[in-house]
Design a protein that fits this description.
heterodimer, A: about 650 residues, alpha/beta, Rossmann fold, seven-stranded mixed sheet, two-stranded antiparallel ribbon, 30 helices, globular, B: about 240 residues, alpha+beta, Arc Repressor Mutant, subunit A, SH3 type barrels, six-stranded antiparallel sheet, about 15% strand
């Protein structure tokens, strides 16, 4: 039985108390479903807000919230991430999102929700795609069998908001649900008889206990008290032992039968199967042990060319039409002195702050996010876990740890949070370490591509080749050093390859850029101001003097690199933006440029990432990892510097 | 003299108790419920199959009794595999009768047909038979591990063997369970299968736990060729076997 049992549990216990106490309160609506089932699309529809939608598993990790009025009643909507174990809130209404292509896979959760007797609405997403795959679902029949409203959503363009609102307003608990064979039913009811809660909760607790759901004990203790929980667990153990055969598997089989019955009644397959679509062929080629690699190389090269040339062209235009005239005007109008330095000087708020953010970094990120979003919507990135599996295996990562690492390319903080699905502590440690070590997050990758593009494609290959080698080496070392653990099994669902939708893609890119502007641009400007102040007050010089042996002699970088390293604490893309600025000023040589990109990618996980690490592994381990990463990044970047100097010279 | 069947039920229960590390007469009474009969125990002890200890409060199988019980349990659990997963029947009763009537040779035959399963549908180990030891050289099984399929082949799952319930739940959640059809797309760097409309990547260990009905021979010849190259075959061929 999956993990959602534990969380639904607590929620239900308190719902019963609160409902009587405060009839006029804000009702809570939870959106649940398998990963990549379109939960965020439904969240956006209900809330009128925008959360990133991608053809991707675990797009949402942190819980989003919104308050809206549905049918005159206030609702707080919670968009839970794909991992249903995060579901720790008490809902009054549950909207379950089902990817129509994976109807059977989703019905297990439906069965649990029906058993809990929570008011339920089912959203069937991606009906068009399912139809193309030869699957037809009879919504009316499904609604009748489950006893709840079933809303069909054809595709991402389809926004049946009115129907959805109506269904939520009239939501009622489902009917039917799984029934088991007589001997199991008897075990369930006799275990339940000693629990003093509402009947649906009683049944849920009994079933989950008998099914030996490992995540359950803690939440039962919370809901029913420690003594009761212990007693129940003991009773369940006895019942399991006394059962002829394996009770856990028998319960699983009972649910499987229910799913088959529902699917048989509502799901009709086309008699003639549609020919394999070009998208499926592309998906297979992406994962193919031979063709997969040229495709990967092509994708990387295309991204590189777009970022370097297309974004470079926009930058150039902005530079000659906006930056140069303004800087020229300011320079000519202001006398030498404080204000000139403050605005257009070395750490000028305009040159290094505003213009750097808007005229250099923004065009690069626009192009990069467009390309990255395209890859996301197509569903390309998760397929990389097939290609890279052997590589990661060498780095000590088996099974489920591979996907978080691949997701690290998007956002390292989010990827770190997805490691909570890993059961082995060793794997979790390695995964968290590797995610924050040598994998660039998407924004940084985009800017660094442009930086390296300024000095040549070879530099790009050297820098990222180094990072790949370092990453694997780190994994191998960690795997050796950390105590042994059982390798976990690798069972990974892959999203289907989809034709991307231009509107959705543009919208997503727009929001990513908007968030970048809102969150990173103030830091760009603040950084410029702080550096300016530090420079003026002499603090910066003092810091530089202390660090100069390391920076100059070991890393071979100019002293200004100290500023960059300080900035990596805040946001990696801001630091990357500064590096780009340095390259444009001609402050870095070929080798320095490579070393700079490598060290800023490895050095100091950004603040949000450190927080996520501490959350997943505890403060002490999190901080230890951050420290270990910093030290190894200094050591490795220095070695790289020496090697490059020996091989290519300056 | 009690019925042969009744005595055999006692022996099976004692085997079960051995698996749970139990050996007291009270436990036996609890397992057998109303069917408990001291007379049968005495009879088995007299035949040298059961050892009741000095005080009579303990009960366990003798070496000879263990050998007997082993055959019974093996027959019962193989029958369960056959009835439960392969024939998709729910009735436990037909499997219950099996071990009392069927010869060890026939059981070995069924075991071979099913690809020498290692555990019953409830996750209990199936005692090894002679046929399992000779598995490599003996007759072709009709049920084979997923790893033996060729790329592009479609096969129906006969049963899934998993040592951990967690893994079984996970596969079950992805609808990888008996009776479902799957198609093998790729075997390197990992196995990729398609099942109920979803592509799933698996490692070799998991793939070898999934046992499927061997597809008809024409296809498997092609499959073997494709396998010979280690990868190969893009799966461009027409999908077949769907409803």
């Amino acid at each position: 039985m999956p993990v959602h049992g534990d969380t639904l549990m607590n929620t239900q216990a308190s719902t019963y108390v609160e409902e009587r106490a405060k009839p006029q309160r804000v009702r809570k609506l939870a959106i649940v479903g398998l990963p990549n089932a379109g939960k965020t699309h439904v969240f956006n529809m209900l809330s009128g807000r925008y959360g990133i939608v991608a053809n991707y598993l675990h797009t949402t990790v942190e819980i989003e919230r919104a308050c809206v009025h549905i049918g005159g009643q206030p609702f707080e909507i919670i968009d839970t991430p794909g991992l249903h174990s995060l579901f720790t809130e008490l809902p009054d209404v549950v909207v379950q999102c089902i990817d129509a292509n994976r109807l059977k896979q989703s019905l297990a959760l439906t069965a649990d929700l029906i058993r809990l007797r929570l008011p339920l609405v089912v959203c069937l997403n991606a009906l068009d795609e399912a139809r193309k795959n030869g699957m037809h679902i009879e919504l009316k029949e499904m609604s009748r069998l489950l006893g709840v409203a079933v809303i069909g959503i054809a595709s991402i363009h389809d926004r049946p908001i009115a129907a959805l609102h109506e269904a939520v307003r009239d939501a009622r608990p489902g009917s039917g649900g799984v029934t088991y064979s007589a001997d199991i039913e008897q075990a369930i009811s006799s275990l339940g008889s000693s629990i003093t809660t509402s009947p649906p909760l009683k049944r849920t607790v009994s079933v989950l206990l008998l099914a030996n759901d490992r995540s359950l004990p803690a939440s039962i203790e919370k809901a029913l008290g420690v003594d009761t929980a212990r007693r129940l667990a003991r009773e369940a153990d006895e019942k399991r032992a006394a059962f002829k055969g394996n009770l856990e598997r028998a319960i699983e089989a009972g649910r499987g039968k229910w799913i088959d019955e529902i699917a048989q009644a509502v799901l009709k397959h086309d008699p003639i199967v549609a020919p394999v679509g070009s998208s499926q062929v592309f998906g297979r080629l992406c994962r193919h042990p031979v063709w997969g690699f040229p495709i990967l190389a092509f994708v990387v090269l295309l991204t590189y060319l777009l970022v370097v040339h297309v974004a470079g062209f926009i930058e150039g235009a902005l530079s000659s039409f906006v930056v140069d005239p303004v800087v020229g005007y300011v320079t000519s109008r202001l006398p030498q002195g404080f204000w000139k330095e403050f605005l257009v000087g070395h750490y000028g708020i305009l040159t290094q702050g505003l213009f750097n953010a808007f005229c250099t970094v923004l065009p690069i990120l626009s192009v990069f996010f467009l390309m990255f979003g395209l890859l996301e919507d197509v569903g390309y990135i998760p397929n990389l876990c097939v290609l890279s599996k052997r590589l990661f295996e060498k780095a000590g990562l088996t099974g489920n740890a591979i996907m978080p690492l691949v997701l690290g390319l998007g956002c390292k903080t989010m990827a770190t949070l997805t490691t909570r699905g890993l059961t082995s502590r060793k794997e979790k440690l390695i995964a968290v370490y590797l995610i924050s070590f040598a994998i660039p997050c998407s924004a940084q990758l985009g800017i660094d591509m442009a930086t390296l593009g300024r000095v040549g494609f070879k530099a790009f290959l050297i820098a990222y080749g180094t990072l790949v080698v370092v990453e694997i080496a780190a994994g191998v070392v960690l795997n050796r050093v950390l105590p042994l653990a059982d390798p976990s099994e690798f069972i990974q669902e892959l999203p289907p390859i989809r034709m991307p939708d231009l509107n959705a893609l543009l919208k997503k890119t727009y929001y990513r850029l908007y968030w970048f502007l809102r969150e990173a641009v103030p830091i760009f400007i603040l950084a410029a101001v702080l550096l300016f102040a530090a420079d003026l007050s002499g603090v910066l010089d003092a810091a530089k003097r202390i660090l100069s042996p390391v920076v100059i002699n070991w890393l071979g970088l100019p002293l200004d690199a100290v500023e960059v390293l300080i900035l990596t604490f805040t946001r990696h893309e801001v630091a990357a933006g500064l590096v780009l600025n340095m390259v444009d000023r001609g402050a870095l040589t070929y080798v320095q440029c490579i070393v700079m990109v490598v060290i800023t990618t490895m050095f100091v996980p950004c603040f949000a990432n450190i927080v996520a690490m501490c959350k997943e592994l505890g403060v002490r381990t999190g901080m230890t990892i951050a420290l270990a990463i910093n030290i190894s990044s200094f050591v490795l970047a220095g070695i790289l510097n020496k090697i490059l100097l020996l091989t290519i010279g300056r | 003299m009690k019925e042969k069947r009744e005595r055999e039920e006692f022996l099976e229960t004692l085997w079960h108790m051995k698996e749970h590390g139990q050996r007291s007469m009270d436990e036996l009474r609890r397992w057998m419920k109303q069917a408990f009969d001291q007379g049968v125990v005495d009879e088995l002890a007299g035949a040298g199959l059961v050892d009741v200890g000095k005080t009579g409060s303990e009960v366990s199988l003798t070496g000879q009794g263990e050998e007997y019980a082993r055959k019974l349990v093996r027959a019962h659990r193989i029958a369960e595999r056959l009835v439960h997963d392969v024939l998709r029947s729910e009735s436990e009763s037909s499997a219950c009768e099996f071990e009392h009537t069927v010869s060890p040779e026939l059981i070995d035959g069924i075991c071979t047909l099913l690809g020498h399963p290692r555990e019953c549908p409830h996750g209990m180990p199936i005692p090894e038979g002679e046929c399992c030891k000779r598995a490599a050289t003996s007759a072709k099984s009709s049920v084979v591990p997923l790893t033996q399929l060729g790329i592009g082949q479609v096969a129906r799952i006969a049963y899934v063997e998993c040592r951990s319930d967690r893994q079984l739940h996970k596969l079950e959640d992805l609808q990888i369970r008996p009776g479902v059809e799957l198609k093998l797309h790729q075997t390197y760097p990992t196995f990729v299968i398609e099942c109920e409309g979803t592509s799933i990547a698996l490692d070799r260990d998991v793939a070898s736990n999934i046992r499927v009905w061997r597809p008809v021979s024409g296809e498997s010849a092609q499959g073997v060729q494709a396998r010979g190259r280690g990868w190969g075959g893009l799966g461009f061929r027409r999908r077949r076997g769907h409803r």
